[in-house]
Task: structure prediction
Amino acid sequence: MTLDEPAVAALLDAVAWTPTGLVSCVAQQHDTGEVLMVAWMDRVAIRETLATGRVCYFSRSRNWLWRKGETSGQVQRLVELRLDCDGDALLALVDQAGAACHTGRRSCFYRAARDGVLAVIADPIADPAELYGRSEAAP
Amino acid sequence: MTLDEPAVAALLDAVAWTPTGLVSCVAQQHDTGEVLMVAWMDRVAIRETLATGRVCYFSRSRNWLWRKGETSGQVQRLVELRLDCDGDALLALVDQAGAACHTGRRSCFYRAARDGVLAVIADPIADPAELYGRSEAAP
Result:
């Protein structure tokens, strides 16, 4: 993947940033369509994502760039970055290695309102302790 | 669809609300996997969505409930409502009638960083003027 500066500039210009300079991003597995997670990006994260082809978010809790998979190895390779009609949400089509969720599940959306409870509908596919060791799991 | 009060209560308890009492919601077509849009919900919108089986958002610009399809007829029937690991995003699996986007496109994510521009990658499937008449398009 090579940086397409005019496209990056056009995208950044079209984003409707929050007051703190962020935009939300939905990550979707490009071939299966699974919605994996939702996180934030700032200008730097978007530039890095488009330059490297590896998805980088902005962690509000760390107040810093969050290079997805940096600790866990569960990286997201970017396939395409899309923007919605009013510019306040991105859709990243990605190729997710292993688990997107810090709980070791493929997707962060593993709870559903079902049968009188908030049911857990997916099992971990990886052990968070192995993915993150003793360090704090993202985000 | 009948209201599952214990599940609703469990879901509402698990949401990490914004300071203004909102949570973002990704709408995905349940069978094709298309990501259609991202919008906001408040407690009332979630309750109405789960009670009626028709997706209701909260419009920040109108500061009121936004019953998806109320003007345009392009309703979203709810299949399942899911919550992510940290509680700050919902995933609504829906059955979308026609166009989710107020531009008449199936999905709001019709722009992509491609080939030096922010390219328009999908055509309208409906005429917004026919969907919305002279009234203001949502959101």
Notes: The radius of gyration of chain A is 15 Å. The beta strands of chain A are 23-29, 35-41, 56-59, 64-67, 76-83, 89-96, 111-114, 117-120.
